[in-house]
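Worked Example 4.2. Consider the chain below.
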Amino acid sequence: MSESPQPTTVAISNTILKKHHFSVRRIATKSLWSSMVPLEHIDGLFTYAMALTRNSFEAEDLVQETYVRAIEAMGRLREDSNVKAWLYTILRNIRLNQVRQQRTRPKLLELDADGNTADLVIETAKDPHALYVSKVEKEQVRVALQQLSEEFREIIALREFAELSYQEIATLLNCPLGTVMSRLARARSKLGTLLSATQTPIAKEVAVVKAVALPGSDGEHELQEKCNTTSRAHAFYRHQVLGYLNPSMQAFVIKQEMMFVGTADRHGEADTSFRAGLAGFVRVLDEKTLAYPEYRGNGVMSSLGNISENPHVGLLFVDFTDKIGLHVNGRARIVENDEFLRDASASEPVRENIPPATGRGPERWVVVSVVEAYIHCSKHIPRMQKIDEEIQWGTDDVRAKGGDYFRAAASPRAQ
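Applying the procedure from the previous section yields the following structure tokens:
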């Protein structure tokens, strides 16, 4: 029996299955090598190759050469190796060698004027937000991507479209994990700024920015990968995190009599406070805006002080009767009471229906622009029963306010 011939470059070219710039062909030699080198990474590799070459023919050759070398080296690969990251490393090394030979640097993701590359990037991305972007203002995304620096274009291609983990990218680029995270954060921020600068209604929508940035922080995304919770987290992002208050959330907020407020100063020093009032003390002005009153307190103004230099706030509403909670994260501004009541954004019912209390009225309001809203699960919320009792709103009575309950007055300031 004659020995089966080894796949050649021509054979590989005829066996790569692709949805975009590659032709789909029936192949006789597919069974010879597809069981060795997985095909499912072809789209991602081609997208990355387009980012490096900005030319579909060069990108096709680059992917083809990647698979040729992968087949040659497959026998030396350990069983526990990360094949996906290995393929991206091969592709990048091939390209770097080409660049060295040309004595030029690759220009990343210089998208063609006809927008074909923008369509490719969007179609091959699996993120549903990216599919949303494919329906609106593709030209704006294309132009914004063109304006990013080379390193930013590459990091977005690897993370958002190739879907490599932070650690895989760090290994591929031969740089620390922290560098990957900070570079990606800057790239996302820059892209968001460029999209917002277009001043069109679509570009102002958070959904456009979210096409290349998941909800939450880079830190939580990294821990999700490290703790193998990424799929669960992404499902939560898709199904529970909104960029506004839907009708059910609005109805929930206006029934609440208390909430927790999280703030931090410009250095990141955090503070959590408690706010309470009659049902409806937190006002829903519209689906993107709510406001809550600030009464006369102990004069420290820690929450307001933090907001004055860092507008990011986190509000947590917990209904201990129905055992459910709601997180609302946003950006806050401080508005004096008279100004708030005169503001056209404060509807007539808000002006007229501020519940009278036995103490003083609001001195000022905190108006919050909603960025994220999502559920707090009921699993560990204790059920409590409300007891009707008189509350001395706005009182200065020391005993009514709790006095020196923790005996701090006589304790040393530090140990």
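The chain has 19 helices and seven strands. Residues 36 and 74 are 7 Å apart (CA to CA). Compare this with Example 4.1 before moving on.
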